[in-house]
Amino acid sequence: MAQKTYAGKSLEVTDDGYLVDPSKWNEEIAKEMAKEEGIELTDKHFAVLKFIRENEASLTIRKVGNSGIVDIKGFYALFPGGPLKISSKIAGIRKPTSCV
Amino acid sequence: MKKILILGAGTGGTIMANKLRKELSRDEWEITLVDKHKTHYYQPGFLFIPFGIYKEQDVIKPKADFIPSGVKLLFNEIEKIDPENNKVFLEGGQILQYDFLIIATGTRTSPEDTPGLKGELWYKEIFDFYTIEGALALKEFFETWQGGRLVMNIAELPFKCPVAPLEFVFLADEFFTKVGIRDKVDITYVTPLSGAFTKPRATKMLGELLQEKNITVIPDFYLESVDNKEKVIRSYDGKEIPFDVLTIVPVNKGDELIARSGMGDDLNYIPTDKNTLRSEKYENVFVLGDASNIPTSKAGSVVHFASEVLFKNLMCAIKGRKMRAHFDGHANCYIETGFGKGSIIDFNYETEPLAGNYPLPGIGPFGLLQNTKMNHYGKVLFRWIYWHILLKGKELPVESEMSMAGKKK
Ligand SMILES: Cc1cc2nc3c(=O)[nH]c(=O)nc-3n(C[C@H](O)[C@H](O)[C@H](O)COP(=O)(O)OP(=O)(O)OC[C@H]3O[C@@H](n4cnc5c(N)ncnc54)[C@H](O)[C@@H]3O)c2cc1C
User: Most A CBs within 10 Å: which of B110, B156, B266, as the mutation test of the A interface?
Assistant: First the structure.
């Protein structure tokens, strides 16, 4: 565990940089976290982040693709690289564990 | 007469029919089991068919052979479940009523979900080995193949038996070595996961084995489509991987029946309490095996361990008592690693696979997260155990709950 400062607040984060306490999250923190990933957040990003926070328990890329907010290609375009991992981090929730 | 209805006579449905018929009085309880197929497939055996190790007759037996007398066995397509009214509709109009329902309709491959997958190369140069048809077609192809790029891809998570594609590439390495063309075969393992497996220690061990065997891993690849003309697979973020032969685990989904009944999630899996194994929505509905959405592997070993918990909880529910048994997500997978060796992983919801011995602490005979000949014999033996002990719902000399004894942290 480590401490990091986002939006003027010192927050506890995991080794991978995920917030330990999702309830501390706000949009300003998200913007700064996104910058670190090289992403400038738009309204579309925030709509996806909202969906991600609301569906934390059962997230999959497919589920986001079926959300009506973006399709899977669009999701990749918004959060290039690993959309689920990156968007979860910016949304302030725990790192998604793929279960197999 | 009170009624228990079991949907699906695969691994889970067959085990439950056997356990319940032994326990419940025939004067009080009618047990009915429905499946659309008359043949029981030993699915773990599909893996060995492409390499000529098993033949079709090694993996099939009539379903009826495993169903005890006193269980009504119906062969028919299940159309729809109406859980609000405790009714199930079969093709042709038959309606079944139940007091308790056990859903064990499994998961199946859905190649239709990926554009281009079922194109002109399907079963010519693109194969699955999760169906008997695919495994047999691939066997024929491998018999005369001259070599080239062999790409093993997993289309979507979760998929049943998550170690099977790894075993497949290990066995392919052995097969082409023995045929004498390994130097002409380039094996690539393409996965949506970030590594060979999900859990850190198993990923490390399996990743090293892949490297040793000269198998390339391409992680974080989420399949969008298959291009039959260019012979490449494409990911959603525009990566392309060329193949000469593509072996694939297509998108896995629960049966369409679950979607028709409005009971599933995005992939037709039924929301199920991961501890009690009861449906999250309906008090008299239980879900066993691959059909559920519980966060553990979709595997026969899980079905077996879960069946003991489900049985106990169903007995409580029947008597109107509180359910006491808790499933811990216990999974136990033998992994064929080629050249007569194997590994084994043992884990649950909370604990990742660790090194050690199984099932007897300090003794084994199986070595967890190790690559040994004995582990391979375990896998070979498993087929016999499956047909003769597991399906009949008999006790195995291993605990359903995962044990930390014998494990090293
Ligand atoms: C290649 C491969 C290798 C594997 N290796 C292993 C292994 O090494 N170890 C291990 O533990 N597991 C392994 N498995 C997984 C294991 O076979 C499954 O997890 C297990 O069989 C699941 O049991 P189940 O009862 O949930 O479903 P299934 O056994 O699949 O049974 C589902 C049944 O429901 C029926 N059904 C579904 N829908 C309908 C409908 N609408 N109407 C009528 N009937 C219907 C089907 O016909 C089927 O008989 C492997 C699987 C594959 C494919």
Answer: B266
